[in-house]
């Protein structure tokens, strides 16, 4: 029905007869003629109707925004002075000789080019997605997946599909359950990841696997989470953690080059311990120049309990951020920052402003300056590498509270004071995570229970549970965890040891992981893998911080699809067939 | 950990030092040496251990089948007379200088190279998938998807993901439901296809869409059905049915050329009516030379009610299959065929054997010959194009029973008598399906309720419901429906007319399809699409008729995963959180 897309026309088509299909983007009447901007997937072109072609001109009088039309016409160069160099097709226009109104449009329920609420945009998604800025994102997304697939294919990774109707697994977040009609009272689970299936594929000798695959998590949603999300899922045999990181880093570097023509360079590698110490986060945004500086040794003897106590507690931490130019911060701003970090458990925000670094205690301004000797203060300023006009902001509490609070404060101040260069790219690897972390209900695996410890036998692991380091790695870009993975356990005794440490008793091990423990008995190869969050990569590569902008039909933060109105009550007959009842609300 | 795959070694590597990783496929001790066939993803190579390399040799004595090992060694040409040209690596072998046993294997729970029950194969899938014939299928499957993606990308189709957690739709088969935790008592449905989302994408101006995507159907399973299956899903705007068929036929033709180096040629196009008349099926296997021949006009006056009644009933049909060489069939075989077609409602199987075509009534043998005059018999034999030694097999009943029975019998006899050339490829398009079919509960859409009628206005459709032809098309290869699609309705009034005909009242229309009816008001483009069954295409291209051989982790016909033992009872706490109860069994 068309000979070319609107957006593909240029001066090389002048004098050609063309047939175009698309939508009326805008109409204006000028000098006895009717002009429209006609839009299709590839762009916009100016079409005009001349009374000389009477039937087309008469029909054009009926055109309104978003009518779906077909026109036939002739391309011509725009007259001198009417050329629009801001528009890809701005040097030409099309004189319409025929017009067919394919489908009319009522007045739109939302304003096409203005800001609408996100609720409106999601409800009328079919109109929101017509906006060129939205369709551009999905073109980029398709370009990303095509590139990733090509890279993986070329590197010998085999694209294998794993099931969506699987067995429930205890991977930390909650499973979506699917009642079975054949086996009444039993349930499938939608996969949180294809973890065990990809490990089974390695046990089957597939050697290198990948899949771009939907995963599901029924958890409380945040701005950058969705109930269903897409993972670039990778697993390899006979490769070390370093091998996996090398090839995956190559993928991401080439992806950035392909999409943005930007060279990310070689990724620094940082241990979890160092990341927590310097940045208070296991996904540090390295574009932010602020670093957390430990000062427990400097303050351990001062007469200020708030500092001295954690400074002398092996589980405590006293540290600071030195903010350049921060001496300008008002009392109100400092109070707001104190409130901001209180959600991380911090009980206050001590500060020291540096007015004259050479004037000793007289050169600083601070409610806590009185607790310091001149020598202690000098030592502190030196450690912080402070300069005139800076402010020191302190955290003093348990290690966790200080790291979390100063880690978050660092990001906030970096943005507020524009210290973070938003145009930079800062990728890195974070490695050597702890194997286990203590939670309210006992120990849990920090990565997942199939992660191998680094250089430990089962016995050694058993004796060093909290100190044990996992052979795991996360890829972080600009403070987003874009991917993570690990070397997996490939020996039955080690897997059982980890299950035991996690308090999974033998019966539960058999029930939930019997097939894995069995499979580990038949010559399982060493294997390792990784998964990237495709939605996050796409957010970074399309410059949005709203995950719903890179998913065609997303859910709200209440897990609702406003377009189709899902979820919805089920047909009672269907529920009866599934042998389930809805519990009435109180 | 490896320098090259086992299966990649050949004479060009002679004298090279290599490191290999893989599994012991077979071991044999011979002449004081230990030989193993070592296997990895790419194939098998012979490795031998010489006592000269003592530590490797001593360790090799421990090797058993399926041990996972790493060896270092030197490639050498096999001695004259020991070369094996059946094996890709048969001209060389590797002298192992180092051996590392990475992981031992217990005695396998199934026989690696022998036939095992499918239950065993599914339960120990990690071992079954090690068999080279299985891994070869998944390599082909990955090659198919990569080719399809490349073709679609090159032809301007945009890969867009649609949701898995969707709203229930009434598409004929049953939905899998997913209870929502946030909206207690409400449910998502897993998609039977992304039909409405891909139509919405067309309304959004995406112009050409594709996706390789999981779909779900909770229905009784047959040998070639799975609860989850994979679709190559396609939708286009501004294209006619012919345009869509042309580009999709090109895809399949190029796919066959890519995978099998076979040219399928141009696909014949046949109407549904013709397919039912000539082959008794809407997915005829054209490799089978048998055709159904209508004879109602010949038998309408004979004194045999079984024939005469349906021959005179406008809803009846009398037809025959003429089977070459079929006069040899025994009474027992004919009884078996009669029984075979009884499941389609046929009440018997009348037959006429032709001994001497020139001898008139004396030349045939049949319990029903007595009802025919010589002239009628001659007319019958001519119509059937019968020859000496043939048999005529009759169906006489309602159109549906006769078509179904003779259609099925045609396939069975084609196989039994080896009339069907299994090495051929016979693709075709079937078009012009009826819009609606009568079922026990009323009218239902033969394709789906979004399919456009062919050349009818809403008023004309309303007046010709049962005669109306849909603008739908199926692609059939060797009797399998590999794909199907249609031109969709793109006008609000037509969509409402179809819903009305289907007895969906206005309230239900709003509840279930309100968003679609709304979207149709804002300049929807004409659009059409198609979906291929990837699993079926892969079955055809890998030469298996078992769908479970082309899915890495399939379900049984009872929808169970024997590997992981899914589905399984759910955690009561999880059910409580979802506000659902399992109804106790009686």
Could you name the key traits of this structure?
homodimer; about 575 residues; alpha+beta; 8-stranded mixed sheet; 5-stranded mixed beta barrel; 24 strands; about 25% strand; globular; ATP binding (chains A, B)
Structure description:
Two copies of one chain form a homodimer. Chain A has 586 residues and is α+β, with helices and mostly antiparallel strands. Chain A is built from 17 helices and 24 strands. The first copy, chain A, has an eight-stranded mixed sheet, with helices on both faces. A five-stranded mixed beta barrel of chain A has the order 1-2-3-5-4. In chain A, α4 packs across α16 (534-542), α10 (331-342) crosses α12 (399-416) and α14 packs antiparallel against α15 (506-519). The radius of gyration of chain A is 30 Å and the shape is globular. In chain A, 46% of the residues are buried. The interface between A and B is large, with 123 and 123 residues. β24 (580-582) of chain A pairs antiparallel with β24 of chain B.
């Amino acid at each position: 029905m068309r000979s070319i897309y609107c957006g593909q026309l240029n001066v090389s088509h002048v004098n050609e007869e063309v047939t175009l299909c698309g939508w009326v983007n805008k109409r204006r009447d000028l000098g006895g003629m009717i002009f429209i901007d006609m839009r299709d997937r590839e762009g916009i072109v100016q079409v005009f109707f001349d009374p000389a072609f009477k039937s087309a001109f008469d029909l054009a009088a009926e055109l309104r925004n978003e009518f779906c039309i077909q026109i036939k016409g002739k391309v011509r160069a725009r007259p001198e002075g009417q050329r629009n160099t801001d528009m890809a097709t701005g040097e030409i226009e099309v004189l319409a000789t025929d017009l067919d109104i394919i489908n009319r449009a009522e007045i739109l329920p939302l304003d096409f080019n203005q800001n609408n609420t996100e609720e409106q945009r999601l409800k009328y998604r079919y109109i929101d997605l017509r906006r060129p800025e939205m369709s551009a994102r999905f073109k980029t997304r398709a370009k990303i997946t095509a590139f990733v697939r090509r890279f993986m294919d070329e590197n010998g990774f085999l694209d294998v599909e794993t099931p969506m109707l699987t067995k429930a697994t205890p991977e930390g977040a909650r499973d979506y359950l699917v009642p079975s009609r054949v086996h009444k009272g039993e349930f499938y689970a939608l996969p949180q990841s294809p973890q065990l299936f990809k490990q089974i594929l390695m046990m089957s000798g597939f050697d290198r696997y990948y899949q771009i695959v939907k995963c599901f998590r029924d958890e409380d949603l945040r701005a950058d989470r969705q109930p269903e999300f897409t993972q670039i899922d990778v697993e390899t045999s006979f490769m070390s953690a370093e091998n996996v990181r090398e090839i995956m880093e190559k993928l991401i570097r080439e992806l950035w080059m392909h999409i943005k023509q930007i060279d990310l360079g070689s990724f620094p590698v940082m241990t979890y311990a160092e990341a927590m110490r310097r940045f208070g986060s296991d996904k540090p945004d390295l574009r932010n120049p602020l670093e957390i500086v430990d000062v427990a040794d400097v303050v351990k003897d001062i007469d200020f309990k708030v500092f001295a106590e954690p400074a002398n507690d092996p589980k405590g931490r006293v540290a600071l951020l030195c903010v350049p130019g921060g001496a300008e911060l008002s009392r109100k701003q400092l109070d707001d920052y104190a409130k901001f970090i209180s959600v991380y458990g911090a009980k206050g925000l001590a500060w020291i402003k540096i007015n004259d670094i050479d004037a000793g205690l007289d050169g600083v301004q601070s409610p806590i300056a009185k607790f310091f000797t001149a020598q202690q203060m000098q030592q502190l300023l030196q450690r912080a590498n402070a300069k005139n006009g800076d402010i020191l902001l302190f955290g003093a509490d348990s290690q966790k509270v200080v790291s979390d609070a100063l880690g978050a404060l660092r990001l906030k101040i970096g943005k507020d004071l524009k210290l973070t260069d938003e145009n930079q790219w800062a990728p890195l690897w974070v490695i050597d995570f702890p194997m286990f972390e203590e939670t309210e209900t006992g120990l849990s695996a920090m990565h997942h229970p199939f992660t191998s410890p680094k250089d430990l036998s089962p016995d050694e692991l058993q004796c060093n549970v909290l100190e044990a380091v996992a052979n795991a790695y996360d890829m972080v870009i600009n403070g987003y965890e874009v991917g993570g993975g690990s070397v997996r356990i490939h020996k039955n005794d080690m897997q059982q040891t980890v299950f035991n440490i996690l308090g999974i008793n033998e019966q539960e091990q058999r029930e939930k992981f019997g097939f894995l423990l069995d499979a580990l008995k038949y010559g399982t190869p060493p294997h390792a893998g990784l998964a990237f969050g495709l939605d996050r990569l796409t957010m970074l590569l399309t410059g949005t911080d709203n995950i719903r902008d890179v998913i065609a039909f997303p859910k709200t933060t209440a897990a609702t699809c406003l377009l189709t109105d899902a979820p919805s009550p089920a047909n009672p007959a269907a529920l009866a067939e599934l042998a389930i009842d809805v519990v009435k609300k109180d």
